[in-house]
TrEMBL record:
Parts of the chain that traverse the membrane: 62-92, 104-122, 134-152, 164-186, 198-215
Top-level lineage group: Bacteria
UniProt keyword Acetylation present: no
Protein name (record): Hydrogenase/urease accessory protein
Native species: Dactylococcopsis salina (strain PCC 8305)
Length: 216
């Protein structure tokens, strides 16, 4: 069947399927390995590329970044949600660089992914008014950012200032771009096909459950 012969519902399903497949296309065998082969970046370019890669090669981080853009849709000043995450992710990285221990890190990250997936589902059903409150959602996003940012810090431990700064710039740029893209594309999709919010939430939740079970 050609694309021009497909009905609108079929096109929507195809679009959603492709959108949900993007994380897997970005991260082939790289999921098991961090950028630069696990080595600490030692120059500006390596630092920047490592920063671009880290949030993409780890599916739990990628799913959450996408979710921050999706949950922002429909909220007043919703763009604050991904911005709060970006800001506290930088703070979380600085916490790691100060050698401060953060217990149950993987559980916290997986829980944040599950929570934002559930949030999308609840927003679809209008079942939990608190998830319509921008301040609450942005606050949860900010808390999650600390844990995700702390995990990002692992790849830059021991680096000099130049690659360190470029790493921070890299992962902030890529996360901001992904969140904005998910916000823009998701807004169009949610308006044309309301069920897409539900399916997106279920997919994000499922990813969170998988990582949560692995972290136990």
């Amino acid at each position: 069947m050609q694309l021009t012969q497909m009905t609108k519902p079929q096109k929507r399903i195809l679009f959603l399927s492709l959108a949900l497949a993007i994380p897997f296309l970005f991260a082939p065998a790289a999921w098991a390995h961090h950028p630069q082969g696990g080595e600490t970046p030692d120059n500006l370019i390596q630092g920047f590329l490592s920063g671009l890669g880290h949030p993409v090669v780890d599916l739990d981080h990628l799913a959450f970044v996408i979710a921050t853009g999706l949950v922002a849709i429909g909220l007043q000043w919703g763009i604050i949600v991904p911005i709060a995450f970006l800001a506290t992710a930088l703070f979380g990285t600085s916490v790691h660089l100060r050698a401060i221990e953060m217990p149950s890190l993987e559980l916290a990250i997986a829980s944040s992914v599950m929570l934002f997936g559930v949030m999308l589902v609840m927003r679809y059903r209008n079942a939990f008014p608190a998830f319509e409150n921008t301040a609450i959602v942005a606050g949860l996003s900010a808390i999650a950012g600390i844990f995700h940012g702390y995990a990002y810090g692992e790849a830059i431990i021991g680096a000099e200032m130049t690659p360190l700064v470029s790493y921070l710039v890299g992962f902030t740029v890529i996360q901001g771009g992904i969140a904005l893209a998910s916000y823009g594309l998701g807004k169009q999709l949610f308006q044309s096909w309301r069920l897409s919010r539900l399916y997106s939430g279920l997919m994000v939740s499922a990813i969170g459950v998988v990582f949560f079970s692995q972290a136990l």
